[in-house]
Amino acid sequence: MTGLSAFNKFTGTLKEEGQLMPVLFIGHGSPMNGIEDNDLTQRWKQMAAEIPVPKAVLVVSAHWLSKGTRITAMDFPQTIHDFGGFPNALFEVQYPAPGDPALARETASLITSTQVEQDHDWGLDHGTWTIIRHMYPEATIPVLQLSIDYTKGPQYHYDLAKELYNLRKKGVLIVGSGNMVHNLRMVAWDKLTADAYGYDWALQMNTKFKELISAGEHQSLIRYESLGKEALLAIPTPEHYLPLLYTLGLKGESDPVSFFNDKAVAGSLTMTSVKFG
């Protein structure tokens, strides 16, 4: 199936399904994961095989910050190479998944707390395509991105996510793409090739985050700045953490919680990912 035929197939108002799609928070890590075959990317592929095939994918990526909330609404979003200093092979990657303007309009209509602007200029940044191309390599499933309004606080993003819950009933896979622990200023460059390595504070916070997620202590996670100095080291800036709050807001009361790719890399990053549902 070509990207265009997939687009034609899925465009339009989606009908509710008999089951909820799960929600995923995925630690995306280095852009190199977009072309590498490693334990992380293999688990992304496996996850795609374990869950129902989605009608569309909506990603909240740490790498699309905007004033106000925007959603990609073009027929075919561009592949954005929003990084530097990597091999040419990474810049040559194209992920030609279709968009879905009708679904963009429907998603925008679900959000009543703010006006969502339909965007025709962005595309799929590396927080999206490096993951989704492993999960759905044929690029036949429509992929959209929802931006993160950098002027708003954590509670706002958590509450906005709840307005998207109905998409789970319609076969849309919603993915938050970031990292729970993400401090590039403290990366252990001499440990980049180590299989797993984390500073004590990074491992401590990773464990704390998992405990709070498992216990459903969402308010503690929203008010992460009150979790101590280790939390401020783990989240020096919020953009990689906020996608987690979107997935927490989308969690249903009866959704089981499971973790995968649960490891630290380069000292100050964790790849820990979560499946709700």
From TrEMBL:
Its EC number is 1.13.11.29. The keyword Zinc applies. Its cofactor is Zn(2+). Transmembrane segments: none annotated. Pfam families: LigB. The keyword Nucleotide-binding does not apply. CDD domains: 45_DOPA_Dioxygenase (cd07363). Keywords: Dioxygenase, Metal-binding, Oxidoreductase, Zinc. GO terms for molecular function: stizolobate synthase activity. It is an enzyme of class 1 (oxidoreductase). Residues 36-262 form the Extradiol ring-cleavage dioxygenase class III enzyme subunit B domain. Coiled coil: none annotated. InterPro entries: Extradiol_dOase_DODA, Xdiol_dOase_suB. Gene3D superfamilies: LigB-like (3.40.830.10). Belongs to the DODA-type extradiol aromatic ring-opening dioxygenase family. NCBIfam families: PRK10628.1. This is 4,5-DOPA dioxygenase extradiol. It comes from Pontibacter ruber.
